[in-house]
Write a structure and sequence with these properties.
This protein is mostly helical. It is built from five helices and no strands. The chain is elongated and about 95 Å long.
Length: about 200
């Protein structure tokens, strides 16, 4: 499984490299367009413009694919982590069986505490993984952040960007729910640290 994880990460890097290569090719084609226009050769400029557009499209395709592969590698990483936790839980269960056979109540109590700690750790890790998966998937990128970044980039280049931004109703309710969930996670993490 870890070999597959490495291959996925390598593939994502390769796709990003290909995207950058296409971006460079696009810039070269744009330079050729300018030269052809300066020489008055519109037919050649049109060919270079088509090439530039094709390179831009390929670059975006490579970036999309890299994002998807990265999301898959995150899921594989979570599977590897879950496998490790499962092995730990299996070991605890075997120890519990042995302790129950000997009926050493102190040992049983200790093992039960260990089991509960492991289970809480698994629960927290699962929640963190779910959150990171939600953040790493490009489809779940908040629209407001995308719009903000686009406006910043337009301001830096001196362009005017006219996007109609949807007005969110009841945005404070969602924010308070998210902060409540964050508080709950923080408290669970603090409990786990105290137990360790």
């Amino acid at each position: 499984m870890e070999k597959h994880l490495f291959n996925l990460k390598f593939a994502a890097k390769e796709l990003n490299r290909n995207s950058k290569k296409c971006d460079k090719e696009e810039k070269l084609e744009k330079g050729k367009i300018k030269k052809a226009i300066q020489k008055g050769n519109t037919e050649v400029a049109r060919i270079h413009a088509e090439n530039a557009i094709r390179q831009k499209t390929q670059s975006l395709s490579f970036l999309r694919m890299a994002a998807r592969v990265d999301a898959v590698s995150s899921r594989v990483q979570s599977a590897v982590t879950m496998g490790n936790v499962t092995k730990s839980l299996a070991g605890v269960v075997k120890s519990m069986d042995a302790a129950l056979r000997s009926m050493n109540l102190e040992k049983v109590s200790h093992l039960m505490d260990q089991f509960e700690r492991q289970f809480e750790t698994l629960d927290v890790q699962t929640q963190q993984m779910d959150e990171s998966m939600g953040q790493s998937t490009t489809l779940s990128t908040p629209q407001s952040q995308v719009d903000l970044l686009m406006h910043q980039m337009a301001d830096e280049t001196g362009l005017e960007l006219n996007l109609e931004l949807p007005q969110e109703e009841g945005g404070s309710i969602g924010a308070s729910t998210a902060s409540g969930e964050q508080d709950e996670l923080s408290q669970r993490l603090a409990r786990l640290r105290d137990q360790a």
